[in-house]
Specification:
It contains 2 helices and 4 strands, in the order E-E-H-E-E-H. The protein is of the alpha+beta class. The strands form 2 sheets. A two-stranded antiparallel sheet has the order 1-2. Strand 3 (50-52) and strand 4 form a beta hairpin.
Length: 70
């Protein structure tokens, strides 16, 4: 049996992302492990991450931008 997997570790690219305890941005990545990259991206997007053209924004920054909260 051949088994393959893909691991996607996401860090927020937003300058000044301050959603961790130290206020220094996303220090620990969110990790997704699935069979393919597409499945990892789908799972991350379902959790609220925005991923496009090599840029990644965490779900907390996305929500802050929607609500104009800083």
């Amino acid at each position: 049996m051949i088994v393959g997997c893909f691991t996607l570790d996401l860090y927020c690219d937003t300058e000044g992302c301050r959603h961790n305890d130290e206020g220094k941005g996303c220090q620990e990545p969110d990790s997704y492990v699935r069979r393919t990259r597409a499945e990892c991206n789908r799972a991350a997007r379902k959790d609220g991450w925005k991923i496009w053209k090599g840029k990644v924004i965490c779900s907390k920054c996305v929500e802050a931008k929607k609500g104009k909260i800083k």
